[in-house]
Amino acid sequence: xxxxxxxxxxxxxxxxxxxxxxxxxRVEETIxxxxxxxxxxxxxxxxxxxxxxxxxxxxxxxxSISLVKRIKERTINLHKIxxxxxxxxxLKDRRISYDEAMKFLKGLDSAPSxxxxxxxxxxxxxxxxxxxxxxxxxINGIVAAFISILIYYAEDKITVINLLPFFSExxxxxxxxxxxxxxxxxxxxxxxxxxxxGSIIVLFPGIAITNGIRDALYGDxxxxxxxxxxxxxxxxxxxxxxGISLLxxxxxx
Length: 253
Known about the structure:
transmembrane transporter activity
């Protein structure tokens, strides 16, 4: 396998990791592991929005290639991260051909994952637990679970609309506040504060904060600052959405 093919495999693996919520150091480590498995000397630099990779054959240092990949969209899928981790480690024991490797990597988009109903159930259980954690009753937890499942489902189905960064979090937190006040006013009395806290927890950027701290611990200061800033903007958007919804409902109702 030539240098270009190895770098293509490594770059696609890194892209999958980065777009699915992996830490920066893990992406660099995986790329270097894949290149090393095929006797390619490589240097890579990864930030949350891009991957810079160069490599050359250990036998012919003049045969050098550099690749750059811009990352425009990021989501969270720990299942794909785990599969890429297993894939990169398996190459140490068994090298596979270029076609076989690319077939596996490109097939991850259609790889079976958790059933969608389990994701909805997890969102509901998480919101119920957080509502109860803040001293709420079971009925408030159930309402929070209902709202979070509704928000999670709507957010997932409307991802085809390319909203501005952080604007989607603002919209969904705004709708959460409206729903909580509406239910309290016209359906049954609830603790609005605990219901809103439980409902918006599915929007909270927990992975971004965790990865930002872990990147800092590994010395990737630039990536750490980017991820923590992204988390801060997301939290600000969520807070603004809830605050504006409560302010509007105060005067309309």
